[in-house]
Design goal:
The chain is α/β, with parallel strands linked by helices. The chain has a six-stranded parallel beta sheet, sandwiched between helices. The chain is globular, with a radius of gyration of 14 Å. The chain has five helices and six strands; from the N terminus they run βαβαβαβαβαβ. Helix 4 (98-103) links the parallel strand 4 and strand 5 (108-111). The chain is 36% helix and 19% strand.
Length: 149
């Protein structure tokens, strides 16, 4: 069974093109992807992640509130005993904030300029999910869906 990844847009940011590109890229790489849509509270993201039994939450943040929003999601996971769900953060993230995000609990940070191949490889590594795209004998049923908001 492929790893499950929740792509979420916390806060009031309404720009989701990058999040959708990431969702499609991960789906095409064999992950099961759930996309929440835009403008969700951290508590809503945590609830969906737990309900959907995801392996990774990918937060897409362009608003500048990346440290606060990431911290809220990580703390929400901890408060609900979901210590096994990793959080990664992407978007308009200054390189100088990478270590701050790691210190509040992000597993990895993917700032603007990260290639799709780098991102997919990073998520593969986090999930210990091998690349079987070159193995023609492997076939998988890959799904993605958008949750109604």
């Amino acid at each position: 069974m492929p790893p499950r990844v929740l792509i979420a847009k916390p806060g009031l940011d309404g720009h989701d093109r990058g999040a959708k590109v990431v969702a499609y890229a991960l789906r095409d790489a064999g992950f099961e992807v759930i996309y929440t849509g835009i403008r969700h509270k951290a508590s809503e993201i945590v609830a969906v992640a737990i309900q959907e039994d995801v392996d990774v939450i990918g937060l897409s943040i362009l608003s500048g509130a990346h440290i606060s929003l990431t911290s809220k999601v990580v703390n929400g996971l901890k408060a609900n005993g979901a210590h096994d769900i990793y959080v990664v953060v992407g978007g308009t993230i200054p390189l100088s904030d990478r270590q701050k995000l790691i210190s509040v609990g992000a597993k990895e940070v993917y700032p603007t300029g990260t290639t799709i191949d780098e991102l997919v490889a990073g998520i593969r590594s986090i999930c210990n999910f091998p690349d079987t795209s070159k193995d023609e004998s492997t076939s998988s049923s890959v799904t993605s869906r958008v949750l109604e908001t």
